[in-house]
Amino acid sequence: MAMKRIDPEDWGKELTVGEVARRSGVAVSALHFYETRGLIRSHRNRGNQRRYPREVLRRVAVIKVAQRVGVPLASIKAALDSLPDGRSPTAADWARLSRIWRDELDARIGQLQRLRDQLDGCIGCGCLSIKACRLRNPWDELAEHGPGAHLLEP
């Protein structure tokens, strides 16, 4: 399918939520969700319909890429909030944000590798059996730390 060329007169034209959804490949409901979370912004026209600046497409693209690699929405919001005047990220901004997220991703990769390596014997919380986990969790001592896989936490 050929991309429709944008008439130069339309560059300043604001987009409807449907246009943003179609152009970004994100469902309208997801756009509304992003807006309630403060990731993107719109304003209402005289007919009380949402209108988005064209720059929202870049913000949505950044959100999609960050989500795809596993960055939590709270981290995405914090990163976007760090931009002056809530503008869309530039290439330099993206490089800075990706360096920050790289550390988070490296930590998550380490957790996943530990889980993979322990998966066949114990998932790290002592839940399989006291007999099988005596060396890792004698007498279910990890229960004192509450629920979860404590041996996998850094």
UniProtKB/TrEMBL annotation:
Pfam family, one: MerR-DNA-bind
Keyword Phosphoprotein included in the entry's annotation: no
A biological process term (GO) from this entry: response to oxidative stress
Keywords of the record: 2Fe-2S, DNA-binding, Iron, Iron-sulfur, Metal-binding, Transcription, Transcription regulation
UniProt xrefs under CDD domains: HTH_SoxR
Record domain HTH merR-type: where: 14-82
An MF annotation (GO) of this entry: 2 iron, 2 sulfur cluster binding
SUPFAM superfamilies in the cross-refs: Putative DNA-binding domain
PANTHER family listed in its UniProt record: REDOX-CYCLING DRUG-SENSING TRANSCRIPTIONAL ACTIVATOR SOXR, REDOX-SENSITIVE TRANSCRIPTIONAL ACTIVATOR SOXR
NCBIfam families for this protein: SoxR (TIGR01950)
Protein name: Redox-sensitive transcriptional activator SoxR
Species of origin: Sinimarinibacterium flocculans
